[in-house]
Specification:
By secondary structure, the protein is mainly beta. The chain is built from eight helices and 43 strands.
């Protein structure tokens, strides 16, 4: 199915809201949304450009409502304002294997979720602030970064009967492709009142349901909405806890809902509860205490998690820390720090927990892209397949079709699954997927994982922390990776600590043989010598200045109002770093550096180092104007990932084109592992070039990173403007890099001087302390 392109968002200058830490911002284009609502495409490629990075979302239109769907009000003639029409999409992030996206698009806003393996779940929503009133401004934020987290406790009791091997197996032959679950949703009055009316309430709930349905569709489970009932007057649900609210909900609705399962959502109760395996049962109901909005953004992903989790109980799944799994009545994970049932407590999954877990209370959180996991997912699919009450869906939601090739990993564990992990790496050695450790006492347990990858070459690493492999000392374990046609890509079982296999696949996920793997051009250290490149004009009319090469090609100097670039093809990954030394003797509006795919300037690719204007990423905008060289190490891959074609440099000064200069030298690009040190540390300048001070300006903490400094003792001191000593710290430096720091939250706004004394050298600089506006 071809994708039609949509430019629903465009980049906006960087903003700061202390209530939404590390948020990104983007501008919603209402004209484009109007066109989309009038003629919704079945498949769209939607570009989301924020002030820090860019996503390309490949989305498919979905229908959320069951035939005969109805929206009902407790008081039909009260508060029945006009309902907005929306269009709903789900899909994935282009080039991100295992990612999930859902977007609900209305005339003046979008509500959505983006989940990428290895990253926190991201919420995209309209930004509502009394101070910043930019029309169409939307925010993209990670809910785990919010200072106030919602408490959630699930009161659903865990059973003592372990699932049988048949219940835990994937049995696709039992399943009808046209069967689905119809859900009845009831919304309490407190939600209606908080959202401000019928239209806002149904927008929010439909957006939430879109993501819930997307999570189930990713598990090959079809879900649609049979009825939405909204209390626009005081409801009879007055209990103070989740159990009491569920009892009241049952008393009112048991046996009378329109749908296969029913959920009540409210702000009350502080948790959720449902009847496990309640499908086709008179008690097919559950309760979910959803999250209220934060100050300027909705608590969206939390609400999705709670509703999906409680519905998972009705559809047959226990918690993953319950002692009912693996075919031997053990637990899948130990996220809460204990198990229900007294079995041993497994490890906490580092890649984030699954939906039926309690990993929301762990540092790793719940990763929506991980879904339910193989065993809970199989239990739910098998329950639905055998449920006599489930009817066919004439409008089964479209399951997003991958734009990548699907391969299958199967692992049979030995008795110590807690020792087994695996990871899949691309040609840049970046991890694109991983799994484990798995439960202990898991001899014979099969782990199955479908992996969707773009065409290319990859390396599978299977590791055993004890060094005895999967076979044969403690069981007959093995692993096998197969392509779309079941051709073997990698297999084994007898190894010590690690075994690796490199393979290649095409766009359909089929094995490619007799092919030399692409060269790993991103590995190692790429040093820039400008004598080997053509110096290009960048930004069209923006470039009115000059550039000159020096230091035998190691440096470039821009003068006046100049934007310059060199051809530089590089596949930027999450592990890409740019190392550069910079200085200037005359401040312009923008001094910066970045990678781009074309010769047009863009704020979303520029890292500003100095200047009178704030333009581009501000994380390294801390040059002090001394005229001395300052060394920067910039984690490019944490801001954007793309196939770059150019490396560019800025000395922008539109106001007075005849002033300003930017000088760059010793530019190096590398993946994860730093390049060898340029310095022998025989001068103060050498020490200064290997020192990073960040953030600067600072609000709460300031950090000093000593990169490769010689081993020994150093004295770090901080002085106020009158020369009085405020901080004094002894540093005992061992081999490698070291980061130390001070708290500055108690210091008044202003400049402070720091010094670092070594045995033979002393370096100094300044730190600006400021407060959020």
């Amino acid at each position: 199915m071809p994708f039609s392109k949509s430019a629903l968002f465009k980049a906006t200058p960087a903003l700061n809201d202390p209530n939404v830490p590390n948020a990104q911002f983007t501008l919603f284009q209402e004209e484009e949304a109007s066109n989309l609502l009038q003629q919704p495409s079945s498949a769209i490629a939607l570009v989301v450009s924020t002030d820090r990075e860019q996503f390309v979302l490949e989305l498919f239109k979905v229908e959320l409502s069951a035939p005969g769907f109805s929206l009902k009000l407790a008081r039909p003639n009260q508060g029945a304002d006009e309902i907005s029409t929306g269009v709903y999409y789900s899909g994935m992030v282009k080039g991100q294997s295992g990612s999930l996206v859902s977007l609900s698009i209305y005339a003046d806003e979008v509500l959505g979720l983006i989940s990428i393996p290895g990253r926190s779940n991201l919420t995209l929503a309209k930004y509502r602030s009394l101070k910043i009133k930019t029309p169409g401004l939307h925010v993209l934020y990670a809910e785990d970064q919010m200072p106030k987290h919602h408490d959630f406790h699930c009161y659903t009791p865990d059973g003592q009967r372990g699932y049988s091997a048949n219940e835990l197996e994937d049995n696709p032959e039992l399943r009808s492709a046209n069967s689905c679950v119809s859900l009845y949703l009831e919304v309490d009055y407190d939600v209606f009142k908080d959202k401000g009316g019928l239209d806002a309430t149904q927008r929010y709930i439909m957006g939430v349901f879109n993501e819930v349905a997307t999570l189930y569709a990713n598990e090959r489970i079809s879900l649609n909405l049979s009825q939405l009932y909204i209390w626009n007057t005081v409801s009879p649900y007055s209990a103070y806890d989740a159990y009491g609210l569920l009892i009241q909900f049952k008393d009112k609705r048991a046996g009378s809902i329109t749908g296969d399962a029913g959920m009540l959502v409210s702000y009350k109760g502080g948790g959720g509860i449902a009847v496990v395996d309640g499908l086709c049962d008179p008690f097919n109901l559950g309760y979910a205490a959803i999250g209220k909005s934060y100050q300027t953004v909705p608590a969206y992903s939390f609400t999705v998690m709670v509703l999906t989790h409680e519905l998972g109980h009705i559809l047959g799944s226990h918690h993953t820390h319950s002692c009912v799994w693996n075919g031997n009545s053990t637990a899948i994970d130990g996220c809460p720090g204990f198990t229900d049932g007294g079995c041993s407590t497994p490890a906490v999954p580092r890649e984030g927990g699954t939906i039926m877990s309690y990993c929301h209370i762990s540092p790793y959180g719940i990763n929506f892209s991980a879904g339910f996991g193989p065993q809970p997912g199989n239990v739910i699919r098998n329950r639905i397949a055998s449920a006599a009450c489930i009817s066919g869906c004439s409008n089964t939601p479209i399951v997003p079709q991958p734009t990548c090739g699907e391969i299958n990993l199967s692992i049979t564990l030995d008795a110590y699954g807690n020792e087994t992990t695996w990871e899949l790496l691309d040609v840049t050695k970046a991890v694109v997927d991983r799994g484990g450790p798995y439960p202990i006492q898991s001899n014979g347990l099969k782990i199955q994982k479908k992996i969707c990858l773009p065409p290319g070459c990859y390396t599978l690493r299977v590791l055993d922390s004890r060094g005895d492999g999967l076979c044969c000392r403690y069981g007959d374990g093995a692993f096998q990776l197969t392509d779309k046609n079941q051709a073997i890509l990698a297999e084994g079982g007898q190894f010590a600590r690690e075994t690796t296999t490199t393979f290649c696949i095409d766009a359909q996920g089929k094995k490619v043989t007799n092919v030399v793997a692409p060269p790993t051009t991103n590995l190692g250290c790429t040093e820039i010598n400008f004598n080997n490149y053509e110096i290009l004009s960048f930004g069209d009319s923006q470039d009115q200045g000059t550039a000159s090469i020096g230091d035998n090609g190691k440096s470039i100097a821009l003068q006046n109002n100049a934007w310059k670039a060199i051809p530089f093809e590089y596949d930027i990954t999450a592990n890409t770093f740019l190392e550069v030394e910079f200085r200037s003797t005359q401040e312009a509006e923008i001094h910066g550096i970045g990678f781009d795919t074309d010769l047009n300037i863009s704020t979303v690719y520029t890292f500003q180092l100095w200047g009178t204007q704030d333009w581009g990423y501000q994380s390294h905008n801390n040059y002090e104007g001394t005229g001395e060289w300052k060394r920067y190490t910039i984690p490019i891959g944490q801001r954007y990932r793309q196939k770059a074609k150019y490396l560019y440099f800025a000395c922008d000064n539109d106001a007075v084109a005849s002033i300003g200069n930017s000088q760059f030298r010793n530019i190096r690009v590398y993946e994860k592992n730093p390049c060898p040190r340029l310095s022998n540390f025989d001068t103060p300048e050498a020490f200064a070039s290997a020192l990073s001070v960040f953030p600067n300006p600072a609000e709460d903490q300031v950090h000093f990173r000593l990169e490769g400094w010689p081993e020994g003792s150093y004295q770090l001191q901080l002085f106020d403007p009158l020369g009085r000593l405020l901080r004094n710290q002894q540093i005992d430096k061992a081999e490698g890099d070291l980061t130390v720091g001070f708290t500055v939250a108690d210091l008044p706004v202003g400049f402070y001087a720091y010094t670092i004394h070594g045995r033979d050298h002393k370096i100094s600089g300044k730190v600006l302390v400021k407060r959020a506006e």
